[in-house]
Specification:
This protein is α+β, with helices and mostly antiparallel strands and about 110 residues long. The protein has one domain: Arc Repressor Mutant, subunit A (Orthogonal Bundle). Helix content is about 65%, strand content about 15%. The chain has a 3-stranded antiparallel sheet with strand order 1-3-2. β2 and β3 form a beta hairpin. α2 crosses α4. The longest helix has 17 residues. It starts with a helix and ends with a helix.
Length: about 110
Amino acid sequence: MKIETAAAQLEALGNTTRLTIYRTLVRAGESGLAVGKLQRKLDIAGSTLSHHIRKLVEVDLVSQERQATTLICRANYASMNGLIGYLADECCADGAAGQASDVAARTDAI
């Protein structure tokens, strides 16, 4: 994942309304939620919901599918896992190298 992609996704999730929408869609599972149901569940104005969903779609965290007259929103789990992986992949990578050089420095000093 590119740092720009991660930054855009994190920026989108940095808004409390979008984070609430996203978490609700993640909880809904693969079947997703119809926009109307999501609107009622969150008690949010339709235009506001549409604005925030559009941003989540732009950064590939949410997908939409039209089924007849109903618009279904789903969390994009592959994107979510990519972001989580990007954040966790190099966890403590520099810490281990730093600890090894600290040990070597202490050994040299003795």
